[in-house]
Write a structure and sequence with these properties.
four-stranded antiparallel sheet, 113 residues, mainly beta, 49% strand, seven-stranded mixed sheet
Amino acid sequence: QLQLVESGGGLVQPGGSLTLSCAASRSSFGISTITWHRQAPGNQRELVAAIARTGAINYADSVKGRFTISRDNAKNTVYLQMNSLKPEDTAVYYCYSVLDGLWGQGTQVTVSS
């Protein structure tokens, strides 16, 4: 069974950067659209970015120009590079495989001085 494991979260100051990784346990990961979502306390889970098998990419308006999603199918990994982080980016970040309908366990990102 496919498993997704996120990593790379942590505490960062406003204006700082983090790179999140979503690693999959099998190679079929490469044919799925992979999305990153986030959920802050008291809020609904929201879509942050998506990358299709074809490489097509979409971003939420709130992160355009600051976040970059990419994938390395040889490593079965999708990345989310986050720059110019703001306190409102604080949330648990999850990756999701559309093909498998599977979520990772999440990684906490906290942006605070």
